[in-house]
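Annotated sample (chain length 119).
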Amino acid sequence: MTMPLHLDAEAFERLVTDELDELPDEMVDGLDNVVFVVEDRPEDGSLDLLGLYDGVALTERGAYGFGEMPDRIILYREPLLAICANEDELRDEIHVTLVHEIAHYYGIDDDRLHELGWA
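Output written by the structure step:
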């Protein structure tokens, strides 16, 4: 049995930033009023959820504009660390989680993400 990977919050956030920089411009250039957040765990304390899109998908927005609170894409550090044996696996999981949650921003649901191999 392998031990879970350990990485402090600062080092983890650096990996998230690195992976964001690796995403295609076409994917991130369209993001408007979105912040990326790292939290240790989901509110329920579980290790089941790797990330979350907290907002209104682009395809469902009506009157959206000035003064709106930003949407959030949250990555959960402890669940991601728990499923990875090394930093390379962690980078891959962060990348997939970012793509998955950004796709929700664009209105792509879990069924379609599964079809595309991102769920």
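Annotation: Residues 15 and 50 are 15 Å apart (CA to CA).
Annotation: The chain has one domain: 9-55+69-116.
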